[in-house]
Design brief:
Two copies of one chain form a homodimer. With 392 residues, chain A is of the alpha/beta class. Chain A has two domains: 115 residues, Rossmann fold, CATH 3.40.50; 235 residues, 2-Layer Sandwich (Dihydrodipicolinate Reductase, domain 2). Helices cover 32% and strands 25% of the residues of chain A. Chain A contains 13 helices and 16 strands. In chain A, the strands form two sheets. In chain A, strands 7, 8, 9, 10, 11, 12, 13, 14, 15 and 16 form a ten-stranded mixed beta sheet that branches. In chain A, strands 3-2-1-4-5-6 form a six-stranded parallel beta sheet, sandwiched between helices. At the A-B interface, helix 5, strand 12 and helix 11 of A face helix 5, strand 12 and helix 11 of B. Strand 12 of chain A pairs antiparallel with strand 12 of chain B.
Amino acid sequence: MKKLNIGLFGFGVVGEGIYKVLEDKPKLNASIKKIVIKDKDKFRNAPNELFSTNPDDILDDDEINVVVELISDSDAAYSIIKKAFIKHKHVVSANKKLIAEHHLELIKLQKENDVSFLYEASVCGSVPIIRNLEEYFDNDLLNYVFGIVNGTTNYILTKMANANESYQDALKSAQKNGFAEADPTADVEGFDAAHKLSIITLHAFGTKIEIADVIRKGITSLKTKDFEYAREKGYTIKLIANSKIINKNGDLNSTVLPTFVKLDKTIALVNNEYNGVLIGSSLSDEQFLYGNGAGRFPTASAVLSDISALQYDYEYSIRKKSDKILKINESGKLKVYLGYKTEVSGIQNFFEDIEERYQSNSYNHIIGTISIHQLKNVNLLNDKRLSLIVFE
Amino acid sequence: MKKLNIGLFGFGVVGEGIYKVLEDKPKLNASIKKIVIKDKDKFRNAPNELFSTNPDDILDDDEINVVVELISDSDAAYSIIKKAFIKHKHVVSANKKLIAEHHLELIKLQKENDVSFLYEASVCGSVPIIRNLEEYFDNDLLNYVFGIVNGTTNYILTKMANANESYQDALKSAQKNGFAEADPTADVEGFDAAHKLSIITLHAFGTKIEIADVIRKGITSLKTKDFEYAREKGYTIKLIANSKIINKNGDLNSTVLPTFVKLDKTIALVNNEYNGVLIGSSLSDEQFLYGNGAGRFPTASAVLSDISALQYDYEYSIRKKSDKILKINESGKLKVYLGYKTEVSGIQNFFEDIEERYQSNSYNHIIGTISIHQLKNVNLLNDKRLSLIVFE
């Protein structure tokens, strides 16, 4: 078991937690040699001599063999990680945005420099989804990955479903309990879920999807009336990230959309800030992974697992990696519910056919079939008046 | 990807299912060359020339590089597997009893002959528990594996808890629905769970436990009155297999016991024939694996995943394997509920202290602390009059 000398970027709650665990557990044979932070004058719960504001104090130190990157600025993180690879240091990161945006480039650079790049903490907190996907093989014939990958929105949706709260009240409750940030855009608009789906999809199918190609709508337009409809019909509403193979060529569709889920389905058991992911393959039964998806401790625990794995020279094999870029197949169709308070003119034109239409003084909805092509229509996805919910 | 020529032992529902999938999916690059069965005259859904009653038709055929063993006779399976290793064939098996009884010897033989030995199907049907444990490392500091690993008993207990059925009625329902065998002893007395726990424990902790050292009681003594008590207190009753580290020396306690589980705990979500396992470590959050635990399809799917993995030369690394034999540490104590209809003389002597004692005309119970040493007392574990349930 080799000794890990760690250079840590960022000393927020996760960084401090990791520092403490490594101090407490000498058995891990890993210690932090230097911590690079932005603000040197802030009080820190660690010896002063560990800190620096100069990234090169880590990157140019040949004794440091592992970089743990935990900063929020993804542009700065990008250049730190690239430089770490070139300096032949292993990297552990939790930065999903950065990884989703530069995934193939970073993997290439990592391989060229023969180091490990582990990022379990970037997806679903403490749920070991990437390590699990690594245990599948090309010929396991994976069909889909379907799940709740964002704890913030799941917390809000659980409040809306179970306590009949409005979106705004549920958001406030999430912020008060530390499950949503002051600016919640990345979570509630589904960007965070799309980043995670992109990372998951590469490990599941060997295919890189661009964030812009993910059909994505967040949860900000959902109304209590939508949840009333869901309850009447035995559903709940979840923000589901889903990549699935839609034809024999292996074409994928990737979506992050509010989804009606039957209450007796496994995924409906996933409540509050928890995450849960189903993995479907032709050869084996559907697998379900479940765990704590948001907050400090799950992130720290995933980072610690990655650090621990480095001592055994663990690296992702990405057995299915291909350089194929996903081309969205627009021939598919989805069953969609659109809910709205006041009549939206021309709304029926989005549908190929309409199955159910309900109009009343207080709320209206239409259910019918919409093509993937139409679903990419910005008027449909961006219209704040419309609750858009697909059926599982 | 190498071509797999498979020799199949056994052609029951699982074997036939695997044969069909391999025929249907040429992409898998695996085909069955020979099938050894006991009764040559039975009608089989496969070409006649595939069948033989002579094991050597597989074992002596150098073109066959994989043996898939699916027979119920564990003594016959033992000699087949040993001979297959010596002939340098990879082996896939679903035979938990055989593996639990000869685990270390088979692993040694496998390594000596440089072949793979995969047996995901032997534990928890389609839930990839072994592959998951393989992704943990020594320094991940696993603390416990805690779960429902037997679908038959979980189906019976779910009926008893939710439909208020007696043990006998619930057992009949399980048999009628194909979830229990005509002779259910191995399942309902907890032997099957103990075998699986032994296999899991080796992969989790590197420690082999002998079946006789597992503190085991099945579900046959449980009464509807016990479930009434559980409901009143917000519990359900599950048969829990549990290996956990109890001190700094890494000593383990391994138990298969009826257990009160709070209804809001993750493990209480596991109902009917499903299995669910929690993995706890010092470094990361508790992980939860869940899936279909009994029946033909889950077993076939796990066997197919193993076959698929062989094409990539996958083998268990058993990173934590030690040859240490578990010594049960008898100094531990458990909180135990004993339920009984008619007074059992001296029952209070099992307890170190008594927390609650309830007596009535129809049913009685005592709750208190019992030492592990006392729990190994055959009078306590084997007395059919006593419902023994531990608290989580």
